[in-house]
Each structure stands twice: as C-alpha cells, then as structure tokens.
C-alpha cells in the first residue's frame, strides 16, 4: 500500500533525479577559442554554454 | 509531355512538365550535359512537377513535388519560380547532408562559407568572388557531409536581384547574366552563369576553412572583418540551417566539427574592392 510519506519521499527526490537526467542528456562542444555550445538530447535545443542570457535555437522548420 | 532530367550533382531531379519553353530556357542556364531525357532505369532524387492543372494556355503553372504544392506562376516567371522550387524541394526533403543557407566558394582547396539572410549582399558577393577566380560550390546551399565534414558542391546559376544585376554587368562586362525576369516577388531576377572552373569541378568537394557572415553597410567607410566567437558562429549557422532540427544530435556533431576547423568572422563592408582584397588575403 502506498502511503503519503512514500509519495512525499518520491516528490522530494524528483528534482535531483531530474537534474541527473539532464546532466546525462547534454552534449557539449568546447571550441578551440574557449567558447562552448550545448545540445539537449531531451528537448533538441541548442544553447551557448555559460551564457548569462538565454540564447538558443529552437527546433523549428525553416524553408525558403 | 516534355519530361526531362537535371543532373546537378549531388542530386538528380526529374522535371515533369508540359512546357517546352521551360526546358528551352534552362538550356541557357545549364550545360547541355546536365539536361537529359528521362531514363526509366534511373531512380531520381526528386520529382518536380511544373504543369497547368486545367486546360487553356492562359492558366497558371503549378509547381509541386509529390503532393506538396510550392507555388503558381504564369509563363513569364516560369524560370525563377522553377529555380526557387528546386531550392525548396532540396531544402525541404534532403537530409543526407546538413544543409545551411549560405554561399560557398573555394580557393586552393579551402572553402569559404558565407551564410547570410536575404538583403545582406550574399549573392552579389558570391558573384564577385566567382568572377575574381574563386570556384563556386553554391550561392544558396552549403551541403555538409555528415560522415566526414567535407562540403559538396551544388553548382547552379547565381541568382542576382535588382541592382545587383546592373552592378555585376558594370564591374564585369564579360559576366553572362541570363533569363532576366522583371516583376517577381523578389523584384527583377537574373541568373549569372557559373564559371568554367566551377562547372568543371562540379563534383569535387572542399574542406571548410572560413565562415564569414557578411553584411553590406552602405554608410560604412572602412571594411571591418571581426573575429566571431565560435559558439556565436555555431548558433548563427544552426539558425540558418534548413535541416539542423531534423538531424538533431547528428547535426550538432557535424556542425561542431565544421566550426571547430574553421576561422570565423563577421564582415561589414561598403566597398566591394576592399572585400575582394581582404578575402583574397585569407588564402
């Protein structure tokens, strides 16, 4: 039988679990000029690593 | 029916059309060896339909591929709409290569990539560099091989628009601009024929060496060639890609390798002669 404390226990551990999933689902390229980009295997979003501002490429179809 | 094929490596395209005028016009733009009769034993990469859907000579042509409609056009604008349709077809459906909206030229075995949005002067700059002896790989599409990172040519006539047509003719009186069409959605459009060098090596890949993001700035007095952080260059290239989103991890890996091996710049210019000197000096 699932108790309330079990549910709370799962909820409390969720953020850490999520963080671990994200850490393993990122690809990072560090370029030879020191700059770096990161690709998320979960969301397919690309970002400049370490940027204070959010700069990203969303996965959107492009056509001409 | 006057079906024919265009074998502009790396793609072969079957053109299904009832208009003899289209094939005749394209003979001005492509070498005869690349335009051929349809071979029943060939598997073509794409089929582009260019036909009137209803009877009557006044009816518009419908340009489509399979079930996907691209655009309608009257006979006067058949050539530019066909060329755009070919670009659309490849940008939409090929995922063998990572494709970036960029001009590519080569000198001494090294490729220069010029990604830029419309209006940045990309095609004019591409035309000028070709006239100055660089080999044209493409004025529209940078095709990156996912297995080894080389860039494959996709040689086609350079699309010039509006004032660019007169400028190229003024700077290079021998330049062969054909099929000038007025009143298109992009204004007046004409096609500069690729140089002999470009056609001769139309199946020869090149290794990327430079990525330069050009921007024509008429008020600028001095050319500025500014180093661009590679992460920034990566993001701009990804944004200018037709299929980065489709290729996902594979696209990220290929683009990372390409940017890593290139020197990346932002170029702001007004004087084309300064640009020629600066880009020639890169080699």
SSE layout:
The complex is a heterodimer of chains A (64) and B (283).
Chain A: H1 4-24, E1 26-30, E2 36-40, E3 46-48, E4 56-57
Antiparallel strand pairs in A: 1-2, 2-3, 3-4
Chain B: E1 4-8, E2 11-17, H1 20-26, E3 35-36, E4 46-52, E5 61-65, E6 68-73, H2 78-93, E7 97-107, E8 110-115, H3 122-131, E9 135-138, E10 141-145, E11 151-152, E12 158-161, H4 163-171, E13 177-184, E14 187-192, H5 196-200, E15 207-216, E16 224-227, H6 230-239, H7 244-247, H8 249-261, E17 263-269, H9 272-282
Parallel strand pairs in B: 2-4, 8-15, 15-17
Antiparallel strand pairs in B: 1-2, 1-3, 4-5, 5-6, 7-8, 7-9, 7-10, 10-11, 12-14, 13-14, 16-17
Helix pairs in contact in B: 6-8
Summarize the structure.
The complex is a heterodimer of chains A (64) and B (283). Chain A is of the alpha+beta class and 64 residues long.
The biggest chain-chain interface is: A-B, 22 and 27 residues
Tell me which oligomeric state these chains represent: heterodimer
- Radius of gyration of chain A, whole Å: 17 Å
Rg result of chain B: 19 Å
Unreliable residue stretches of chain A: 59-64
Q: What composes the largest sheet of chain B?
A: 8 strands, mixed
Number of helices of chain B: 9
> What class, by secondary structure content of chain A?
alpha+beta
Main beta-sheet strand count, sense and barrel state of chain A: 4 strands, antiparallel
Strand content of chain B: 25-35%
Order of strands, widest sheet of chain A: 1-2-3-4
First-residue to last-residue Cα separation of chain A:
58 Å
> What form of chain B results from the Cα inertia axes?
globular
- Shape, principal axes of CA atoms of chain A: elongated
């Amino acid at each position: 039988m699932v108790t309330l404390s079990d549910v709370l226990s799962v909820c409390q551990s969720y953020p850490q679990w999520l963080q671990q999933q994200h850490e393993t689902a990122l690809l990072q390229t560090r370029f030879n000029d020191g700059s770096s980009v990161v690709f998320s295997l979960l969301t397919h979003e690309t970002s400049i690593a370490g940027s204070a501002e959010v700069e990203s490429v969303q996965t959107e179809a492009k056509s001409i | 029916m006057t079906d024919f094929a265009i074998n502009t490596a790396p793609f072969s395209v079957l053109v299904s059309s009832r208009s003899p005028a289209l094939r005749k016009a394209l003979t001005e733009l492509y070498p005869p060896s690349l335009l051929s009769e349809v071979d029943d034993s060939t598997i073509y990469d794409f089929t582009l339909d260019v036909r009137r859907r209803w009877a009557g000579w006044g009816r518009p042509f419908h340009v489509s591929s399979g079930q996907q409609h691209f655009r309608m056009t009257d006979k006067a604008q058949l050539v530019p709409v066909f060329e755009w349709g070919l670009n659309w077809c490849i940008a939409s459906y090929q995922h063998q290569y990572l494709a970036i909206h960029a001009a590519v030229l080569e000198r001494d075995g090294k490729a220069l990539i010029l990604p830029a949005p419309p209006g940045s002067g990309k095609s004019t700059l591409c035309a000028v560099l070709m006239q100055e002896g660089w080999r044209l790989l493409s004025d529209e599409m940078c095709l990156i091989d996912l297995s080894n990172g080389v860039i494959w040519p996709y040689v086609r006539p350079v699309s010039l628009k509006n004032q660019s047509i007169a400028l190229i003719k003024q700077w290079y009186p021998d330049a062969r601009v054909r099929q000038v069409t007025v009143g298109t959605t992009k204004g007046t459009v004409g096609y500069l024929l690729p140089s002999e060098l470009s056609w001769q090596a139309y199946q020869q890949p090149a290794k990327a060496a430079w990525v330069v993001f050009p921007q024509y700035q008429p008020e600028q007095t001095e050319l500025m060639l500014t180093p661009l952080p590679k992460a920034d260059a990566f993001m701009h290239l990804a944004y200018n890609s037709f299929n980065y989103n489709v290729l996902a991890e594979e696209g990220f890996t290929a683009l990372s390798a390409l940017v890593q091996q290139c020197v990346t710049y932002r170029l702001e210019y007004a004087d084309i002669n300064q640009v020629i000197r600066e880009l020639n000096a890169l080699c």
